[in-house]
Every structure is written in structure tokens, then in C-alpha cells.
């Protein structure tokens, strides 16, 4: 019990120090923008300042690792696999075979390697994206993840730029990963 109180006090101190500064250069967004409450207790999986989505490690060069700043826009792009769904910066979106009934099974280290496609508000459908297949789910961490044809969508941290499909047919975290076609199916090789 004593350790738990100590950890809680340290985390609350980190949260308070991150929110009390007038210099926002270390954080891309304000905490209250994501319904963070200054009175809610910090959890051990929160980012240092409490501003990032729990369980995700921010990378200053990769917006796929950061909390969303608005509605996600899902588009279709041509890759070596053919036409697939893409999100931020034209990066490929993937489905995880282990996900069941529209529920994400990718958390913790999995969500760092395969960041979920997050959104604030309803996602928007670009050209050739079927709006009726585009929906959202609430993740265990409280964030909203984009789904397509009931598949939660993810990026792959090793994809460096638009057009990369390094996550195609990868076996990782107890399942297989595939790029998603505009029809909502897994892309073929």
C-alpha cells in the first residue's frame, strides 16, 4: 500500500508539473483538449506530462504516435500491393487478425509497434473510401480508434513514409497484420 501511494504521488507530481507550465513547446496539445481532468489520478502508463494517449510513446518525428488533434481522414492510395487505405501523411493502415468483433486486442507494447489510427470526432472518408464501412470504437485506454468494415485500423511504426507496406503479412503479437483494401478486406501480396 505504501508503494502504491508513493507511485501515485510521483505520478500526480509529474502530471501537475507537465500541466502547470506556460511553455507548451514539449507538448503538441493541451491536456484539456483530450478530456484530461486535473483531478483525475495519473496511471502508470500515461506519458510523462499526461498529455499523450496512455500506452503510447510519443515520437517528435512521427504524428502516428501522437494523440489526435481532430477527425482522422481515411484515404485510398496506390502501393505495390494495389489500392489500400491510408491515414496520416499517406501512411498505410493495417488490420490485425487477432482482433475480434470490432474489439482491439493490441495494447501496450503492441500499440507502440502498431499505433492505432486514432480520431477526435467522426473520421472522414476520402475518395474511394466507403463511408458506410468507416466507424469507430472506444479503446480500453479511453481513446477513439477508427475501424473499417469492423476492423480496427493501425499504422506500422516501421513504415517510414507514404507508400511503405512493411507491415504486410507480418506475424507479430500473436496474429497476422495486413494492409486494408477499399473493400475492407486484407490486401493480397
Automatic annotation (TrEMBL):
Residues 19-64 are annotated as: Disordered. PANTHER family: BLL4220 PROTEIN. Residues 1-22 form the signal peptide. It comes from Planotetraspora phitsanulokensis. GO terms for biological process: alkane catabolic process. Keywords: Signal. It comes from the Bacteria. It holds the Pfam family Lipoprotein_15. This is Lipoprotein with Yx(FWY)xxD motif. InterPro entries: Lipoprotein_repeat. Transmembrane segments: none annotated.
Amino acid at each position: 500500500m505504501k508503494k502504491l501511494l508513493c507511485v501515485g504521488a510521483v505520478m500526480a507530481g509529474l502530471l501537475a508539473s507537465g500541466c502547470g507550465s506556460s511553455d507548451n513547446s514539449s507538448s503538441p496539445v493541451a491536456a484539456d483538449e483530450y478530456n484530461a481532468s486535473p483531478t483525475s489520478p495519473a496511471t502508470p502508463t500515461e506519458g510523462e506530462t499526461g498529455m499523450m494517449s496512455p500506452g503510447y510513446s510519443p515520437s517528435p518525428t512521427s504524428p502516428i504516435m501522437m494523440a489526435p488533434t481532430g477527425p482522422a481522414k481515411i484515404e485510398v492510395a496506390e502501393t505495390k500491393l494495389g489500392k489500400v487505405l491510408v491515414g496520416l501523411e499517406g501512411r498505410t493502415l493495417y488490420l490485425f487478425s487477432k482482433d475480434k468483433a470490432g474489439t482491439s486486442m493490441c495494447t501496450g507494447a503492441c500499440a507502440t509497434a502498431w499505433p492505432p489510427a486514432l480520431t477526435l470526432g467522426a473520421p472522414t472518408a476520402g475518395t474511394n473510401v466507403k463511408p458506410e464501412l468507416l466507424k469507430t470504437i472506444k479503446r480500453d485506454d479511453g481513446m477513439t480508434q477508427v475501424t473499417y468494415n469492423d476492423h480496427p485500423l493501425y499504422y506500422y511504426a516501421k513504415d517510414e513514409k507514404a507508400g511503405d507496406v512493411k507491415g504486410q503479412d507480418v506475424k507479430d503479437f500473436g496474429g497476422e497484420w495486413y494492409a486494408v483494401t477499399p473493400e475492407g478486406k486484407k490486401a493480397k501480396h
